[in-house]
Amino acid sequence: MYKDDQVTVYEFGSGFILFQVAQFESEIDGALIGEDIEYVHRMRVASRRLRTALGLFKDYFPNDLAEKWRSEMRGITKALGNARDLDIQIQLIEEKIHGVLNESWKPGYDRLLLRLKQARAKAQQKVVSAVHTLKDAQTLDEMRDRIKLTIFSGELLYRPELYSAGQEAINNALDSFLGYEEFAYDPENNEKLHAMRIAGKHFRYTMEIFNSIYQDDLGPQDQLGEIHDCDVWIAWLPEFVQQEEDRIRAYYGHTQHLTRLLQGIQHLIEDRKQNRQSEYQAFLDNWQMLGRDQTWDSLRKMISPAKDQ
Fold it and tell me: What is the mean pLDDT of residues 39-55?
C-alpha cells in the first residue's frame, strides 16, 4: 500500500508512462512501413522518454517490474537509434549531391549513398524484428494493464511531494551532466564528450518529464549531438574506404577503380572536420554563456520545493 505522500508521485509518473506508451504505439505502423523517416524519429524519442520515466519511477512498481519493462524496451530503442542515425547520414549525403558538388566528388558521394541505403534496408529489418519481439513479449500491454489495475482515482493534485521528487530527479541528472564539465574544454576527447552527450540527453528527458508542473521551461537542450555525428563520420569514412578497397580488389583483382571514389570521400572527411570545429565552437560559446548567466543555479532554485508553489 502506498503512503499518502507517494500517491501523487505515482499518479504523475503513471500518467506520463501511459501517455508515452500511446505515443510510441501511434508511430508503429509508419515506422514499420519505413517510407517517412519522421515515424522512426518520433518512435525513438517516445521509447527514450518511456525508458527514462520507468527508471525514475521504478520504486513504485513491485518486483522490479519497471526494470523488466526497461530491459524489454532496450532492443527497440537500439534498433530505432541505428535506423535514425542512418536516416540522418543519408539525408546529409543527398543534400550534398543535390547541392553545388564538384563533378569529381560525385562518384564518391554516390557510392556512399548506395552503401548507406543498403545499410538502412538492413536496419529496417532489425526495426521490424524488434517491434515483433516487443509485441510477442506483450510489454506495452503489460505496462498498460498493470498500471491501470493499480492507478489511483481522483484528480491529480500538485502537492509538495511531487515537487520534491522532481527536484531530486532533476538535480541528480544535472549533477551527472555537470560531472563532465571539465571535458567541455577538451575538444579532442571524443569519448568523454560523447558520454557528456548521453548524460545531457538523460538530463533533458528528465526535465521534460517534470516540465508540466512548472510554469517555465526548465532550460537548455543537449547540444552535443552534431559534434558526435561529425566524430562518427570522421572515424567511419576511412573504414568505409578500406571496405570498398577490399570489395573492388575481390571483384576486379586490383584497386584501380577506387581512385575515382577517393576525391569525394576525402572531401566529405574535410567537410565533417570543418563542421565539427564550428559546431564545437558554437557549443563552447553557449556553454560559457550558460555559466555566465548562472543557468544551472537558477534552475536549481526554480525547482526547489522551498518556493511558494
Answer: 96
